[in-house]
């Protein structure tokens, strides 16, 4: 392969950079002190390494050790442990609400998801995958970085409520082969993964992994509301998922390939399709490739980063409207990015970057299997070009400012400007105060702007984009080496919200520019670690979100409370991870308030029974709590019941 041939010719002197990075990455995070955990470098905030004190955001990090300790299976489950995040599930996709904003069926268009800095959000729906449709296995992540607030000054499109950057493991971190298998009886869910990674003698770092999942799901009762139908959806909840990940790196070069293929059967009759009809499903296939170069010059005062990327997303939906209909979509994108980071000017880190993305295909289709004469094709393409700069200015020994701006141009809304301003004060060696301002934008996606079938939706080619402005005050305080406290007060204002309305001419649904949305919130969190390898993390979030006219927002809990405790047990080398989450009441479409709920999960794992062997038992929804999430405008149901108690047995072996 071309990249392997290139790897053989990489300069040997650059290997020292990779060796130091990999030695830090392969450290056992379970053995690090809380102070060391807080010093794990963050790369997703500014596209270069920063400490948590330097990041212009209330950043959070979820380590691989935490993913294992709590038995999280999907990205939304892990993110739900963080302050200000609530999740929803509609039996098709997982959705993430951030700081009170999470409209039902929103497809995560205002949250940017990246894998090693490579954008995963597709160019048709702008969707940031958080559930099973995420095209990488959670076991392959070294850490999850969540940077809340506008990230438009660095990333542009979609980074409105935050950036989720997934940092993958290296071959040196795996250092051998891993086999895992898991079974979840209630859903008849079978999972498997095989991974191999190594740093070879010639300095080439290689990681290859394949994963698969099959689940029959549950037979659950559904009421289809206005359809006048209700009943048990038997055999209509199955799930299929396959993933492949490959990474090759040497010296300053790295190449990554990500592939994910997921199909979820639909028991809900989504998009008002015929209830209780077998064979209805939604499917997503992602293919992402990225070639990166990063090296330092001029006595390590200049860092050059460059990358080429290519993405492919295929969506397919099979629904029944008196007969089978198919609604496929094809999105292809490619592009390049170049960044320069200079520290030559004392007291300054200057970042300059340019990024171009060509959306080669943004095609949407409607196919009538019974009468091809009704078929519809909407063929589009587009582009995005961005120039950005940032200065991390050390004003004094205790005062730092971050000044950034990005200028973007696209074929839909023209030119947009996204600034970032931050003042970070190291008030004492243990206390950091951050004052933050940011703005981000989102152009309407191809689905919102262009899709029209004359039945379910009409297009709105004049649809304008939306923007958000956020002001935030963050205080971080360390009490000794084992306890950290954080408080955050924020307000944000979302202008020209793109929302589903009614076209006055046709009377059909149409995406339109809606009301302004305003919010105020408070987040308090604490993280305590003990020398006995016990860690307790908790948070409380109060969030008040409403339209400018005073109406409350759908699916917006005012109170969130989180508690995560991991500790060793004096039996068979067991380690326990207990999670408690409380979500306050949420408003649903018909105006009723769905009750708040407390959800407990427990995970028990051990690696002490045999060398290389790992066993775990996860108990999800420990107390079998019955609770619901609001449905969207495309559901028959006003609310969707969530899963009860389930068990997951997992076996892993390393050699």
TrEMBL record:
Subcellular location(s) per record: Cell outer membrane
Entry annotated with the keyword Iron-sulfur: no
Keyword Membrane: yes
Superkingdom: Bacteria
UniProt membrane topology term: Multi-pass membrane protein
Record domain TonB-dependent receptor-like beta-barrel: where: 260-622
Annotated TonB-dependent receptor plug domain residues: 52-163
Annotated keywords: Cell outer membrane, Membrane, Receptor, Signal, TonB box, Transmembrane, Transmembrane beta strand, Transport
One Pfam family it belongs to: TonB_dep_Rec_b-barrel
Family, per entry: Belongs to the TonB-dependent receptor family. Hemoglobin/haptoglobin binding protein subfamily.
Protein name: TonB-dependent receptor plug domain-containing protein
